[in-house]
Design brief:
Layout: E1 3-6, H1 12-16, H2 23-30, E2 37-38, E3 40-41, H3 52-62, E4 69-71, H4 81-101, E5 105-108, H5 119-139, E6 143-147, H6 164-173, E7 179-183, H7 185-190, H8 195-202, E8 206-211, E9 214-216, H9 221-226, H10 231-237, E10 238-240, H11 250-259, E11 265-268, H12 275-295
Helix pairs in contact: 4-5, 5-6, 11-12
Length: 297
Amino acid sequence: MPRLAVFPKAFMQALCKDGTLTVSEWIEMAVRLDIDGLEWYAGFLEMQDEKNWPRFRRQVEDHGKVVPMMCCSPDFTHPDREFRKNEIGKQKRWIDMTHTLGGSYCRVLSGQRRPELSIDQGVGLAVECIEACLPYAAANGITLILENHYKDDFWEYPEFAQKMDVFCRLVDCIQHLNFGVNYDPSNTYLAGEDPLELLYRVADRVVTMHASDRYLKYGTLEDLRNEEGGATGYAKRLSHGEIGKGLNDYDAIFRELKRVDFDGWISIEDGVDGMDQLERSVAFVRKKMGEYWNKFC
């Protein structure tokens, strides 16, 4: 049966920018939820000091929880070789971070969709960089997880592999035991595409999942698909919301994950309106997990 984690979506500014919430305070808030683990973020301010890494692991594990997943954002599609080499170095440090925290999964991305970059060039650069990290990940017992991402908060351009066809091509290019997919259904809407179609194409490669939900602030799904300007426009129409009350069909998602015997981690990336919302999202996902994995066992 899958296990459930949470990510501090509502508190990223406080944890990563202004320091108004400490990591220890976030841990104490999160462990009260009906979860098995806490998804980590490499950009927490306090993670700059490596001495904090084992301390946070102990604090989490003292509550009977674990840190299964690391969220980080390498940019592997930059045209400069030295830049890419530096990004590979950062990814290896994030692998070290994941290992020290006791985790098993560390995110990778393709990089930014720079206008001058062709599909062939971008895929080639991303494959080269990810494959350069895989031996180090394997040596540390870490699986690199490629997410169908939208855009890192600090990037100028959206994710290079945001579109389904590019993402699937990149996934198909990398065949390694320590590589898999982190599936995020909501991000597919930001590409103007169908999250279930993507899941059906990559289900056998999915090892972790981000559970979230989006709702339309105005207009229709057809408006969203036709909106000029791509991902930038979609972000304005869509907003994070409580899981189970948005656009995603979690029955269909979990039915497909159960079909392929998925037993990895599901991390909730919602709760943007605070802990009460996050608690309701946890309850919804926990109930759905019980329905599908207990019902069909």
